[in-house]
Design a protein that fits this description.
The complex is a heterodimer.
Chain A lengths: L1 E5 L5 E5 L11 E9 L4 H5 L10 E2 L3 E9 L11 E4 L9 H4 L13 H8 L23 E4 L2 H4 L1 E2 L6 H7 L2 H10 L8 E5 L3 H12 L4 E6 L2 H9 L4 E4 L6 H8 L7 E4 L17 H5 L7 H9 L5 E4 L11 H6 L3 E4 L4 H13 L9 E6 L3 H9 L7 E5 L1
Parallel strand pairs in A: 9-10, 9-12, 10-11, 12-13, 13-14, 15-16
Antiparallel strand pairs in A: 1-2, 1-4, 3-5, 3-7, 3-16, 5-6, 6-8
Chain B lengths: L22 E12 L3 H9 L1 H7 L5 E4 L4 E7 L4 E9 L6 E6 L6 E10 L6 E12 L1 H10 L4 H18 L19
Antiparallel strand pairs in B: 1-7, 2-3, 3-4, 4-5, 5-6, 6-7
Helix pairs in contact in B: 2-4
The structure holds zinc ion (ZN) (2 copies).
One zinc ion (ZN) binds next to α2 of chain A.
């Protein structure tokens, strides 16, 4: 099959690789119908995230059609059109049982690469470094899905391929970020970042009943999407002296009840480091990034909620004293997609929320390197490039 | 003792020499919590098939007879193999594999089970006393167990947990990649 492979820093190529196979009776093989790029992919493309290996197939947001299942798979079948969350759950460990799927104990074959830094391993993920599992990614003709019954969610006929595609990660992540805020009807929610995840967080916050949602970014076309598609008020942070002051003015001096960070280190380039030799070269840690997070901490009202979706490195500075003195509640996680996907598909089927406008550009898989270029440099207002194998 | 030919040390160096010299003893203990009962885990850990599957990355374990097990660690040149006697002083609480005479890599292996709080299952503690040969043989063994002894013990526990909780050990077998099969790094 053809697949988008990482070959080194800023060196993506579409190559021919072996097809995946059923390796366990609980596996399914999917023919990928659509996949999309994610801001977090830029970490390893730019060389800031170790444990990539030349030839790795990348991509973790996808949907498709099941073409084969192992002998123990019952609840889904060949021919089903399904969406698959990016983190792989087992369904049987204590974490999966508590709906904390990205913390699954049993799906990372390279768990011991993570434990020196994290203490305990995360779930495995498709196409996202060997420390995060090493599983082949989904920018490919086919992909193997372990524990198919837990990870494949059939898509209702009323829901389009593109709507289902974003439920696999960007939408689920943004929705989780809003869910973390325990939104009350008169709440004001501010969201840093109007990329795929930030827009989804804003729209989800509105859906959950927030009185006002404020989106913060610097790209005019993304701010326009926030206003027109998510119904948010917006702040262009390059056009104001102080985002914190503007937010205070907008909220009668109180500050937003909840602040969602959907930026992380993605725009700046630092990543999660591991205790291996290459880390020092690979990390190139900038000590003064994370402006969005610091703004969110200062802007948030006392006793408010800080919901962190941005992906950070493990050595970042964090103003704990401010969080503590203001009595903030911090909630964060990699996405627990399996907890949210059924709700999201339902929202799409009912016409309550539609994420498909994130797909600003479409490419054949063969042109995926060009799609990533466009995505990285935000050319032509690219929010998410969608790839069709 | 009869029928113990297989307990003889079968490691041979490239020049036909045998394993000699002092050993370095190191004891490593690691714990994991598994969602299963003590009884189930006790039964599984007595099964050499379970032991072989969870140690698949560096050792095989086969039953000999009467609670005796035969352990083999293959090396790039030859292998080290030895027999153990299973000691079960406290059924469903702990198991010990005591080495019989001869060279070996594990001087003593024991596993202990105790109930975890709530419905979390069972806390499993694995203790391995390594008897690492010195000199070149030790280096070869360490090369084989190249992730370090603590990681090795952790990995054994993790594999047991995944097998018990999900019926499989997560794998990258046949993982598509443009450069060979995508195994661990
Ligand atoms: Zn993603
Ligand atoms: Zn799990």
């Amino acid at each position: 099959m053809r697949a988008l492979c990482w070959n080194g820093v800023n060196d993506l190529r579409v190559e021919t690789v072996p097809d995946p196979e059923i390796t366990s009776p609980r596996d399914a093989i999917l023919r990928v119908k659509l996949s999309t790029a994610c801001g977090s992919d830029l970490h390893f493309i730019d060389g800031y995230l170790p444990t990539m290996r030349e030839g790795d197939v990348i991509g973790h947001e996808f949907m498709g059609e099941i073409t084969a299942v192992g002998s123990e798979v019952r609840s889904v079948a060949v021919g089903d059109r399904v969406v698959v969350p990016s983190f792989i759950g087992c369904g049987n460990c204590g974490y999966c049982q508590q709906d904390l799927w990205s913390l699954c104990d049993n799906t990372n074959p390279n768990a011991e690469l993570q434990t020196p830094i994290l203490g305990y391993p995360t779930a495995g993920i498709y196409g996202y470094t060997h420390a995060f599992g090493g599983y082949a990614g989904a920018h490919a003709g086919y992909v193997r899905v372990p524990h198919a019954e837990e990870n494949c969610f059939p898509v209702p006929d009323e829901v389009s391929d593109e709507q289902a595609l974003f439920a696999s990660d960007a939408w689920a992540t943004g929705y989780m970020g809003a869910d973390f805020c325990d939104i009350h009807p008169d709440d004001v929610v501010a969201v840093w970042g109007c990329g795929g995840v930030g827009l989804m967080a804003q729209q989800s916050a509105s859906l959950m009943g927030a009185e006002r949602v404020i989106g913060i970014d610097r790209f005019p076309e993304r701010l326009r999407l926030a206003r027109e598609k998510a119904g948010s008020e917006t702040i262009d942070y390059t056009a104001v002296e102080s985002v914190v002051d503007v937010l205070q003015r907008m909220t009668g001096g109180r500050g937003p009840d909840a602040c969602i960070d959907a930026v992380g280190m993605e725009a700046h380039g630092t990543g999660i480091g591991y205790a291996y030799d290459r880390v020092k070269q690979a990390l190139r840690l900038h000590t003064d990034r994370g402006d969005a997070l610091r703004q969110a901490i200062v802007a948030c009202r006392k006793g408010g909620t800080l919901s962190i979706l941005g992906v950070y490195g493990v050595l970042d500075k964090f103003p704990m004293g401010v969080v503590m003195n203001k009595g903030l509640t911090v909630r964060t996680a990699q996405q627990h997609g399996q907890r949210y996907v059924p709700q999201l598909l339902d929202h799409a089927a009912q016409g309550q929320m539609d994420p498909s406008y994130l797909a600003t550009h479409r490419f054949s898989l063969e042109d995926a390197p060009r799609g990533y270029e466009m995505f990285k440099h935000k050319e032509d207002g690219c929010v998410r490039p969608v790839f069709v194998p | 003792m009869p029928n113990y030919d297989r307990s003889r040390m079968v490691f041979v160096t490239a020049d036909g020499g045998t394993l000699e010299g002092a050993t370095r003893a190191t004891e490593i203990e690691r714990s994991i919590t598994i969602r299963a009962s003590e009884d189930e885990l006790y039964r599984l850990w007595r099964d050499p098939q379970h032991l072989s599957r969870i140690m698949d990355h560096f050792a095989t374990v086969t039953a000999v007879d009467g609670g005796r097990h035969y352990w083999v660690i293959p090396l790039p040149i030859g292998q080290i193999a030895w027999n153990t006697r299973t000691v079960a002083e406290h059924p469903s609480e702990s198991l010990r594999w005591e080495p019989l005479a001869g060279p070996r890599i594990f001087d003593d292996v024991s596993v202990h089970f105790r109930p975890a709080p709530g419905d979390r299952g069972t806390e499993v503690t694995l203790r391995i006393r390594f008897a690492l040969p010195s000199g070149i043989v030790g280096c070869v063994v360490m090369g084989r167990i190249d992730t370090g002894l603590g990681l090795l013990v952790n990995t054994v526990l993790r594999r047991s947990k995944s097998l018990v909780e999900t019926g499989e050990i997560p794998t990258l077998a046949h993982n598509p990649s443009a450069r060979g099969s995508g195994d661990t790094i």
